[in-house]
Amino acid sequence: MTTAAALIVAAGRxxxxxxxxxxxxxxxxxxxxxxxxxxxxxxxxQINRVGVVIHPDDRDLYDRAAEGLSLEQPVAGGDSRQASVxxxxxxxxADPPDLVLxxxxxxxxxxxxxxxxxxxxxxRSPGAIAAQPVVDTLKRGQDGCVxxxxxxxxxxxxxxxxxxxxxEIAEAHRAAAHKNLTDDAAVAELAGLPVALVEGGxxxxxxxxxxxxxxxxxxxxxxxxxxxxVGQGFDxxxxxxxxxxxxxxxxxxxxxxxxxxxDADVGLHALTDAILGALGAGDIGSHFPPSxxxxxxxxxxxxITHARDMVSARGGRINHVDVTLICERxxxxxxxxxxxxxxxxxxxxxxxxISVKATTTEKLGYLGRGEGMAAQAMATLSxxxxx
Length: 387
Fold this sequence. Notes:
This protein is an alpha/beta fold. The chain is built from 12 helices and 18 strands. α2 links the parallel β4 and β5.
């Protein structure tokens, strides 16, 4: 099977952004700019691993932006973008992928469609880049005046991701280490590698200035057409020794505990799967594998906020969630309002957009015998078309 890695370049200082905070860590819709693209690549079914190249001084900022995400260890960048990419590529050499996609961390709205187009083009070409054809009239300037009109036929604005066969682009970067080239396609061109062009999308903007960030915020607020998505989730856990259960983010005293790799919160697990399902982004186990010891005993709030942030990263919003807890005990009614309040806090929704219900199986089956608990959930999202 062909393996593909994504390398997100986020080591720049962003002098033109006009802030002490590097642009890739500025907030966009309440989420760092960098996190938007990380979530999109992590959710793509053909991307096996995601790594980030950062500035050594930004480790605390990076840790906050990448909190809860399953990423490669970050790599310290160099004194230029080209050097940073080369160092990132070298970090993959011990276990090299077949393909690598290189993406600017300041492009938060890359779509899964664009990623897929680049990957598809790499089946036919050693390199492929997302780009947009130039549609504006181009003028040459001299001394502040128009000095001529440039023919725009065949001209494209290069974007990222830019994808390549790993071994070839790694060798090309090593050979061009003494150059100062503006993108990875230029490195490939210097090495004589053909590079295909695919449509990247108008929304695949790069945040360079504060004005760009303001424009990105406007885009997130709804300057695009939306579609409605609905997802459903189900989870079940058995009872074991313990003195409490965790349900919908709430600790409830009980004479048994739910058994699971994390805190076994069936409500949050089912709801996380419902949101991921609406996104078409797999299930909770694909993002937080139970075989990974780092998630042992984890508060499931990490899982639900990850799914929430994935919605934000794609420019979407959660409209409504509905959770049904299925058990004979403990009684849910006395805790319902507190559960709704906790879900509202975690999802950053008003309480009137959240429903928590409970039912039994009328003493039938393993749930009726009190051997465990189950939950089912529905989530309704609005997502920009094509995202």
